[in-house]
Amino acid sequence: MKLPVDPRSRSSSPTHSFLLRLAELLHRYGTPAFRLERVLVKVAASLGVEGEFLSTPTSVLVSLGSGSNKEMHLVRGNSGEVNLGKLVDFDEVMEDVEHGRAGVDEGMTRLEAIEDRASGYPFAATALSFGAASACAARFFGGGPAEMGMTFLLSVLALLLGRLLTRRAETVDLFEPVAAFGVALAALAGARATGLDYDDRIVTLASLIVFLPGLTLTTALNELATRHLVSGVSRLAGALAIFLTLLFGVALGWRVGEAVFAGEHTPTLDPLSAWTVWITAAVAPFAFGVLLDARLRELPIIFAAGFAGFVGVRMGATTLGADLAPFAGALLVGLVSNLYARVSNRPAIVAMTPGIFMLVPGSFGFRSLTFFLEKDALMGIEFAFQTGLVAISLVGGLLAANVVLPPRRVL
């Protein structure tokens, strides 16, 4: 049970308390180190406070004041899932406090109200978006109607399982391997025991696509590229740990499934027409926007950034090759996001995160590990190399976009 803590008890200064609470909340809702540190320094300076911040995936080290009045604080907590709606609201509070339209007391009250607010979407909408995003991934992987339908069903069941396991501290760390085990076993059982004609490997991968830490991996490399080495290395290790726990669950599911449901199953793929991938690319950004709890009025720009990224990848594949095509996609995502940030004076991260979510190399990393599991080291190394190349291509595209069209807001 989490005991209530009065934010003012952390420091003798209301301004310091506001900065500490802001650091905690921005960290909790997935702000990368290179953004979090810069925005906190900017807010502290506007309040006349000398502040230094060091962010890692599990804590934020804060130094406030100077000389004999300097205070050191350690804000513990895991960098959680991205919540775009709350991050935008936090940004509005920061802007008002920076420009003197609100004091730190009012700012603290507004931060607590945002933190206490429930998700902007009902669970049914979240579950539908979760299934839709996974089904879109199945289409991107070459699956047909059968793969997409089965993926939708299993991904929603995995989401329900996640809600049950994450309610208790004792089982929250079991979520990834248990979900992976259940999805892999159910996909294999459905293909071998029921006679349903679908590729269970595509279904397994697509059903777990939202759980794969591709975005975490990309963020880690971005942090390393911007010289935030402590956070980047820690986040990279965390991504690898999630990959391995998911792999363990899938491997166990396959072994149990092969022992219980004997026999071979050779699927006959019934691929959809090539033009349907464009419909999938149009649906996916909305699904990821809902999953990241973006506000309704920001879904159109999320669609624009995500679809632009997809178009960039398709165009880049013809000129740069498949491995470097994500650079073009990330460049377009970054340009659209930064243009939105300049026009609306809101954070570029609103459009950028869902757009990059469509391009992240989580599937390559997972396939690499599955090839190693099947003792195909050559293919495992090839996919591992592709994972790193795609991830660094995404980072390069985002950095290039920031040079070509810098956003006005730090966040």
Number of helices: 16
Structural class determined from secondary elements: mainly alpha
Can you list the strand order of the major beta sheet?
A: 1-2-3
**Strand tally:** 3
Any idea what the shape is? globular
Residue share in helices?
Answer: 55-70%
**Most strands sheet:** 3 strands, antiparallel
Mean pLDDT score: 85
Outline the low-pLDDT stretches. 1-10
Order of helices and strands: HHEEEHHHHHHHHHHHHHH
The number of domains: 3
CA-atom Rg in angstroms: 22 Å
- Please report which band the strand proportion falls in: under 5%, 5-15%, 15-25%, 25-35%, 35-45% or over 45%: under 5%
Q: Alpha-carbon distance between the termini?
A: 32 Å
In short:
The chain has 16 helices and three strands.
Task: Write up this protein.
- The protein is mainly α and 411 residues long.
- The protein has 3 domains: 9-116, no CATH class; 140-292, no CATH class; 294-411, no CATH class.
- Helices cover 66% and strands 4% of the residues.
- It contains 16 helices and 3 strands.
- It has a 3-stranded antiparallel β-sheet.
- A hairpin with a 6-residue loop joins β2 (59-64) and β3 (71-76).
- α3 runs antiparallel to α4 (104-116), α5 packs antiparallel against α11 and α13 (325-344) runs parallel beside α16 (377-404).
- Residues 1-10 have low confidence and may be disordered.
